[in-house]
Backbone:
């Protein structure tokens, strides 16, 4: 069949076909999108493959117009070249800026440089997501990174306002930026099994409890945390208190046995990680440290998730429970703030 | 009027980066009006500059400048060391700011709140011909006009323009003043040598600016005409740009001048009848032209006689106050004469009218008569063309042989009294006398001296002509006679008896019949009836008129045309219409105008302004109305489609007066259309359109419309103030709206028995007997009284209240013909040789398809003609409808001369029959049809038909020949698939037969443009290409289904040797459920049928309720009222699901876009998609800046794409526009 030299279809109202939009976002070239649609049975009786093909092409062309506008969502909302309902606008932005966890897993913790952009083929291979889609996701991150990096003020608000993203998505981006800024180690072999969501939960926790609104980690807090070391002098007391709290079958037998034996090592690891955070090197290794020193030993000892939860809760001492804390009243505050972020991280890592 | 334009430039946003070095722009704005330019400061380094300027003032001496010149706002990038770079421009037409206030002022009342915009304010895209939209600029513009009492200055400020081919919602027409048209000619900058050294941008902008100016100038000139005619608005305004290439550019505007008032402001007016008094003035005019005489004859209508009073009144012709009895008659007469003279187009008789020689013999060829029905004028035209065409130029008339006068020896009793009188008159040699005599002598008291004079003159002319023609004249006379004298009274009596209700017509018809016995063909006499009422109205008090009308068999006031045929004339058919001369006579006469005026006066109490105008003596040169939608009752009869084409060679003329040449060309074409109209016994052409097709240096002018008789009073009826008066174009010329109209109106007034009058538009406007023997006529299936044709073709929307069975659907005929690749004169000849075949084929296809659809009428017919290097293409698009009044269509029969194909033949026949049956079912026609049949006592008629057709060898009607495989192919092509269940497809503004309430919401305006290779110049290939595009629409819009695609407009171009470009646009309206499934449809149809304008009867409401509740649920999810944030654009004259609250002005844009990196923007597809998207965006922004939220009657024309892929370039021109409105969301609760 002859393909017309020109074949366009334009509407006054931009009525988006979400199905095709999704295929486009997924990076399908037009022919493959058309054949997918065909397989899904999108052809009505009487419609031919070239109609479908032409339809997809029309949509793709308008999507590329959209894409230019979407680089600056605030302008996209203001633009009147394409007449899109406000609801659709919001949805389009959200879907365009949404990403595949698998792809993002590969991107986090790395500076979104052009070099990285060139490596997207690998990402594609690894994740099975088409390169065009990877590129879009990467470009989105880079754009947000670049823009927000230059701004002061609340990062989350900046993302929300500059890119008009809904809160959950903005939060995810904030976490991504945070992971990138700190350059957390996320790609070591031992962490390879972790998903983007694991890191998101962790980063989100860290952001909530350790960072200010500009996503700057509280350096003073890390300095202060060094004093936490003092608690090690009272390790026995800590153990007693912990075990007491966990009495009554709150732990599985495996965990209970292991804990009595290895409390010291676990406790020390936790404290050491805390006291090392002021060094950026160690900060970057936070996840790997948690994984190696806490999660893995416990897993070996066949702890369950709820064992871990109970444990974390149990060692969250308050000022009255440990002698050291009674003496140095700011220590329990530091400790609890530390655990508030690290606790969930451990749980998340443990769960994975 | 001097005026002051004030402009503020507030800010810009999203400007492009012009300074690569620092990624910013130093923007400033130049504001230009005429020759004056002012600038803002430079806003440095910002892509979102804030200028916040003060008001820039432009003082303009003459408002003409405001209308001609768009305000140009040009955004520039300041550059210290080199020339400033242009970012882009905004053209703002100031005309919306000039007009509306006046209209509201006129009303005094609540207009203030409802007036047009007083300011243009808002963000408007900055458009560049090379880059498209580049950001937006926020401006505010106001205009202050100082009123000026200098009456000698021609100002057309205050005239409002509406693209909408209907009376704008919220307004009513006080007076319809006639057809207005203007054109201007200019050099096209693109083709001037200087442009070869200009940059593309400069060249494009020069063109855009020029086009914009020319468009403004045309509008202004039309405005002057309108004001002179006493109007304040143009509706159905259409503007075209003819890009003639080397010879320049022609901008043409046509429209219908009216005097419009807002409905709220309208004074409560008594019935039209009450106002009779002032109408005397025109009679002079009427008298002037001879036509009057004829009319006098006509007058005789029963009513006249009945009313003694009337005559008296009439008598005082001279006295201004007195009603102009004559006028009315006069027009009628003239008309009749004309009609007679012209005979049916088909007949192509030649006739020579008063021209130098008075031999007005018109010979009718018998062949002509044989044509089955008159409706298919197209066909007629086609034939006509064939013959005429040979010259390559329009050939008009002349030729023919008039010669054979035939005589009606037997005028029969019919004419008896009158007839004799006439004859006598003829004999006397005084042409004029004939008519006059009867009039005078007889009861004519009514016809006063004036009448007498007028008649004398007019008739004299006409008659004479006829008479001169020879003995032949006699036949004609009869007609006149009939109408005229008192005898009529007696006649009427007879008639009444014989004829059904039709009354006036009947008289004539009777006469005819008798005549026909002999050789008579037909004579047109119309208006008789009309004249009567008019007279009555004018002269007598309402009561009188009433009585008159009552007296007359009210029924159908149609005018009839009868033409007499000479027996001999047979062989020759010369058809020559005497053009101008003939017409002029009538036109100049104005008698009709007078009538109209009369009416107007009668009707309009507040007709002060109009008063003077009525003095105009000139009758309308062209009784054309560019509207397509009419209130119910307005159209009294539809005669059929009339069209004319003319092939012209464009040669370069260097004078600015060039426009005169073009004017003359159009005048010829219009004259021909008018003559066709006359020959159908009609007095106006509705839904009138003009178009040009240009290829190389050959230009084909086409004009077409629907011949009809109308009732001007109905304009007022629907919205109480009515006035009827038609003027001719520039002026003062009153149109020949016949008195008959008036009369009819009156009749209608009196007898609101809508069920009867409902089907009237279907009835033949001429008498039965006047038709050739082979023409098919049937009794109206609704009223059973009048005759109807077997099919109706028309260019208008289905008239309100016309009973429709089932639903309408799109039908399209496409014809493709090879043509030789020649130049200039040879080309012109080639084209004119081919055209008739093209048209004939087109008509045949339409008719066959219509029958296969199981329907019997076409509405909203448009014809697209396109010429390419080696082929010519014509596409006719229309909406097929089953009119309940017309007989059911015959299933086409297949015949074959080839013996061995009997099986195949049978098979094909079976397929056709099945297709027809399934179509009937699909469009809900079948049931109705049966019931119709059972209850139809005259069903024999239907049974007769096939035989009749066969006998007559009437191939066009229903026989398809299948002699070879090509024919077989053709057949299969004719049986195109109906739209899928979820869709309805029509070219009309709503789906005929479907109540408006089922159409929920205007969801989408879609535009599809396809350009593809046409591998062979066959109809089949063309059909496939177009079908594919239509199928594609269903697919593209599948997510909106179920929906109705309305207002479809196709255009076809042949840009390159083997390429074809087809564009289509339309509105997708959401419906709650597929219309084919709507349970309420049937009752809705019935309700439509019976309820006339009254809308839904109680029954309808109940069913509506049901539909509504079903609908309700869906509506919530399905219907998005989006008015809050976006601008609806629709090709329909209304917004479905909304109500137009304010009309904010007419917009018309010409965009040029050029691209030097075609591949980079995604090839042609990317280029065009961006262009159309941006064009719509610009249009929306302008609507918003006027305070509107919708653009109705959107059009896109002249989409000329010139790609040059080898150079990686492309250029495109496109013209779009429509009416900006503010729409409110109509509360729809009422339908649920």
Residues:
């Amino acid at each position: 069949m002859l393909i017309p030299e020109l074949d366009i279809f334009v509407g006054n109202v931009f009525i988006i076909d979400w199905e095709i939009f999704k295929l486009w976002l997924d990076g399908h070239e037009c022919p493959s999108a058309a054949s997918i649609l065909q397989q899904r049975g999108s052809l009505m009786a009487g419609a031919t493959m070239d109609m479908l093909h032409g339809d997809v092409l029309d949509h793709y062309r308008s999507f590329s117009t959209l894409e230019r506008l979407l680089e600056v969502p605030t302008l996209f909302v203001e633009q009147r070249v394409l007449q899109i309902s406000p609801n659709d606008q919001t949805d389009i932005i959200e879907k365009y800026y949404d990403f595949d966890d698998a792809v993002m897993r590969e991107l986090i913790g790395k500076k979104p440089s052009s070099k990285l952009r060139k490596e997207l083929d690998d990402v594609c291979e690894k994740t099975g997501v088409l390169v065009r889609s990877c590129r879009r996701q990467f470009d989105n991150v880079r754009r947000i990174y670049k823009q927000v990096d230059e701004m002061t003020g609340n990062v989350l608000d900046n993302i929300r306002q500059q890119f008009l993203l809904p809160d959950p998505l903005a939060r995810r981006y904030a976490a991504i930026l945070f992971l990138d800024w700190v350059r957390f180690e996320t790609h070591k072999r031992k962490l390879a099994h972790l998903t983007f969501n694991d890191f998101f939960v962790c980063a989100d926790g860290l952001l909530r409890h350790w960072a200010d609104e500009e996503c700057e980690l509280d350096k003073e807090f890390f300095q202060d945390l060094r004093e936490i070391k003092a608690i090690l002098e009272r390790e026995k007391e800590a153990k007693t208190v912990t075990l007491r709290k966990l009495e009554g079958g709150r732990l599985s037998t495996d965990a209970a046995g292991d804990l009595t034996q290895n409390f010291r090592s676990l406790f020390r690891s936790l404290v050491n990680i805390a006291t090392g955070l002021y060094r950026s090197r160690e900060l970057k290794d936070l996840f790997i440290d948690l994984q190696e020193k806490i999660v893995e030993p416990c897993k070996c000892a066949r702890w369950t998730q709820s064992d871990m939860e109970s444990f974390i809760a149990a060692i969250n001492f308050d000022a009255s429970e440990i002698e050291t804390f009674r003496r140095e009243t700011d220590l329990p505050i530091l400790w609890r703030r530390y655990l508030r972020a690290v606790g969930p991280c451990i749980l998340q890592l443990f769960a994975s | 009027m001097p005026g002051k334009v004030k402009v503020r430039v507030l800010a810009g946003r999203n400007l492009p980066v012009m300074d690569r070095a620092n990624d910013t722009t130093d923007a400033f704005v130049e504001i230009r009006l005429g020759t004056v330019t002012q600038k803002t400061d430079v806003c440095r380094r910002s892509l979102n500059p804030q200028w916040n300027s003060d008001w820039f003032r432009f003082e303009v001496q003459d408002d003409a400048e405001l209308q001609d010149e768009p305000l140009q706002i040009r955004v520039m990038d300041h550059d210290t060391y080199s020339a400033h770079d242009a970012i882009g421009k905004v053209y703002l037409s100031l005309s919306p700011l000039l007009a509306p206030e006046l209209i509201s002022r006129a009303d005094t009342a609540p207009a203030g709140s409802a007036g047009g915009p007083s300011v243009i304010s808002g963000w408007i895209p900055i458009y560049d011909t090379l880059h498209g939209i580049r950001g937006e600029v926020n401006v505010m513009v106001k205009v202050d006009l100082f009123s000026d009492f200098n009456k000698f200055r021609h100002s057309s400020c205050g005239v409002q323009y509406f693209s909408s081919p209907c009376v704008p919602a919220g307004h009513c027409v006080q007076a319809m003043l006639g057809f207005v048209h203007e054109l201007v000619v200019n050099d096209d900058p693109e083709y001037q040598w200087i442009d070869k050294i200009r940059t593309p941008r400069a060249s494009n902008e020069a063109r855009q600016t020029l086009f914009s100016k020319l468009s403004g100038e045309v509008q202004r000139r039309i405005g002057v005409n309108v004001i002179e005619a006493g109007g304040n608005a143009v509706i159905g305004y259409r503007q075209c740009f003819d890009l003639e290439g080397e010879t320049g550019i022609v901008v043409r505007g046509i429209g219908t001048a009216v005097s419009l008032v807002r409905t709220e402001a309208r004074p409560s007016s008594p019935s039209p009848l009450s106002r009779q008094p002032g109408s005397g003035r025109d009679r002079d005019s009427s008298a002037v032209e001879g036509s009057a005489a004829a009319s006098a004859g006509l007058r005789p209508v029963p009513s006249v006689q009945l009313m003694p009073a009337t005559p008296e009144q009439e008598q005082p012709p001279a006295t201004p106050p007195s009603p102009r009895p004559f006028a009315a008659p006069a027009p009628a007469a003239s008309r009749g004469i004309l009609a007679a003279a012209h005979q049916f187009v088909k007949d192509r008789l030649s006739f020579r009218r008063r021209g130098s020689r008075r031999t007005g013999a018109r010979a009718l060829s018998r062949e002509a008569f044989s044509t089955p029905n008159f409706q298919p004028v197209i066909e007629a035209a086609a034939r006509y063309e064939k013959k005429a065409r040979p010259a390559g130029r329009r050939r008009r008339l002349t030729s023919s042989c008039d010669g054979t006068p035939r005589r009606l020896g037997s005028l029969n009793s019919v004419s008896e009294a009158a007839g004799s009188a006439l004859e006598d008159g003829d004999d006397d040699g005084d042409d004029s006398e004939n008519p006059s005599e009867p009039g005078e002598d007889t009861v004519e008291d009514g016809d006063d001296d004036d009448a007498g004079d007028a008649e004398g003159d007019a008739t004299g002319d006409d008659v004479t002509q006829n008479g001169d023609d020879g003995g032949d004249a006699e036949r004609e006379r009869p007609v006149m006679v009939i109408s005229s004298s008192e005898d009529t009274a007696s006649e009427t009596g007879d008639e009444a008896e014989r004829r059904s209700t039709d009354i006036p017509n009947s008289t004539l018809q009777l006469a005819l019949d008798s005549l026909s016995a002999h050789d008579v063909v037909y004579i047109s006499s119309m208006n008789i009836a009309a004249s009567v009422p008019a007279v009555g109205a004018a002269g007598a008090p309402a009561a009188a008129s009433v009585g008159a009308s009552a007296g007359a068999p009210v029924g159908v006031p149609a005018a009839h045309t009868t033409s007499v045929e000479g027996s001999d004339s047979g062989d020759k058919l010369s058809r020559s219409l005497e053009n101008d001369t003939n017409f002029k006579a009538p036109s100049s006469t104005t008698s009709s105008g007078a009538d109209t005026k009369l009416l107007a006066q009668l009707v309009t109490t507040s007709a002060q302004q109009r008063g003077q105008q009525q003095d105009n003596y000139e009758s309308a040169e062209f009784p054309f109305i560019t509207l397509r939608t009419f209130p119910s009752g307005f159209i009294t009869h539809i005669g059929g489609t009339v069209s004319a084409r003319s092939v012209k060679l464009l040669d370069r003329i260097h004078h600015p007066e060039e426009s005169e040449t073009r004017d003359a060309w159009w005048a010829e074409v219009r004259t021909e259309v008018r003559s066709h109209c006359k020959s159908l016994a009609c007095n106006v052409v509705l839904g009138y359109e003009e178009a040009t097709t240009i290829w190389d240096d050959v230009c084909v002018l086409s004009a077409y419309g629907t011949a009809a008789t109308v009732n001007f009073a109905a304009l007022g009826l629907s919205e109480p103030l009515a006035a009827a008066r038609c003027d001719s174009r520039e002026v003062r010329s009153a149109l020949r709206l016949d008195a008959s109209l008036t009369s009819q109106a009156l009749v209608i007034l009196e007898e609101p028995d809508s069920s009867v009058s409902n089907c009237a538009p279907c009835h033949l406007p001429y008498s039965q007997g006047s038709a050739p023997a082979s023409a098919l006529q049937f009794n109206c299936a609704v009223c059973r009284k009048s005759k109807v044709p077997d099919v109706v073709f028309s260019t208008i929307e289905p008239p309100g209240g016309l009973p429709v069975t089932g639903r309408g659907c799109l039908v399209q005929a496409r014809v493709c013909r090879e043509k030789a690749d020649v130049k200039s004169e040879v080309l012109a000849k080639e084209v004119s040789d081919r055209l008739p075949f093209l048209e004939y084929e087109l008509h045949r296809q339409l008719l066959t398809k219509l029958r296969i659809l199981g329907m019997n009428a076409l509405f909203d017919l448009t014809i697209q003609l396109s010429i390419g290097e080696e082929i010519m293409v014509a596409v006719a698009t229309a909406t097929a409808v089953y009119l309940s009044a017309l007989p059911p269509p015959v299933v086409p029969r297949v015949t074959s001369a080839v013996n061995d194909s009997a099986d195949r033949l049978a098979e094909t026949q079976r397929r056709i029959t099945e297709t027809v049956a399934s179509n009937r079912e699909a469009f809900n026609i079948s049931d109705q049809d049966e019931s119709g049949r059972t209850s139809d006592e005259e069903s024999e008629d239907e049974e007769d038909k096939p035989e009749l057709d066969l006998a007559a060898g009437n191939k066009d009607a229903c026989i398809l020949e299948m002699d070879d495989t090509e024919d077989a192919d053709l057949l299969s092509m004719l049986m195109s698939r109906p739209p899928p269940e979820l869709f309805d497809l029509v070219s009309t503004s709503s789906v005929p037969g479907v109540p408006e309430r089922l159409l929920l919401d205007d969801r989408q305006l879609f535009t599809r443009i396809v350009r593809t290779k046409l591998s062979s110049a066959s109809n089949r290939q063309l059909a496939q290409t177009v079908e594919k595009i239509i199928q594609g629409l269903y697919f593209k819009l599948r997510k909106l289904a179920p929906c109705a695609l309305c207002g479809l407009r196709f255009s076809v171009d042949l840009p390159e040797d083997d390429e074809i470009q087809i564009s289509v646009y339309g509105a997708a309206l959401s419906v709650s459920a597929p219309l084919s499934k709507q349970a309420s449809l049937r009752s809705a149809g019935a309700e439509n049928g019976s309820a006339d304008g009254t809308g839904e009867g109680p029954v309808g409401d109940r069913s509506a309720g049901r539909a509504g509740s079903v609908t309700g649920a869906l509506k919530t999810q399905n219907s998005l009222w989006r008015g809050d944030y976006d601008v609806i654009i629709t090709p329909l004259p209304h917004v479905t699901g909304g109500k137009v609250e304010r009309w904010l002005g007419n917009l018309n844009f010409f965009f040029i876009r050029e691209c030097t990196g075609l591949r980079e923007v995604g090839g042609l597809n990317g280029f065009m998609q961006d262009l159309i998207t941006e064009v719509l965006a610009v249009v929306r922004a302008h609507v918003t800046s006027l305070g509107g939220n919708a653009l109705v009657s959107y059009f896109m024309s002249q989409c000329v794409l010139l790609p040059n892929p080898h150079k990686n370039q492309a250029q495109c021109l496109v013209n779009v526009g429509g009416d900006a409105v503010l729409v409110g969301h109509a509360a729809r609760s009422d339908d649920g």
Notes: DSSP finds 20 helices and one strand in chain A. Chain A touches chain B at residues 2, 4-13, 15, 17, 44-48, 51-52, 54-55, 57-58, 61-62, 64-65, 75, 78-83, 85-86 (CB under 8 Å). The longest strand of chain A covers residues 6-11. Strands of chain A lie at 6-11.
